[in-house]
Amino acid sequence: MSEIKMKVREFLKNNYPYSAGIADIKDTDSLMDRGILDSTAVLEILEFLEETFQIRIEDDEVIPDNLDSLERIESFLISKGVGT
What we know:
CATH architecture: Orthogonal Bundle
Number of domains: 1
Mean pLDDT: 91
Distance between the termini: 16 Å
Strand content: under 5%
Structural class: mainly alpha
CATH superfamily: ACP-like
Largest sheet: none
Number of strands: 0
């Protein structure tokens, strides 16, 4: 597992420990469909990603294609230059 996925997974476990299935979430599972990310959680994860990975996320980048799974988050961060 990549460092990006590990950090995001740890953030989710620490901040949403009572979300259904957080412990066994797969990299491709939809965080929204699983009930882990709602509108408030999206704002929290955006702040986490910006602070942890020292990036700026623009409003037009806040879409499910970028944030709906661990795999999509990793791809999005790589496209922003994280881990390269």
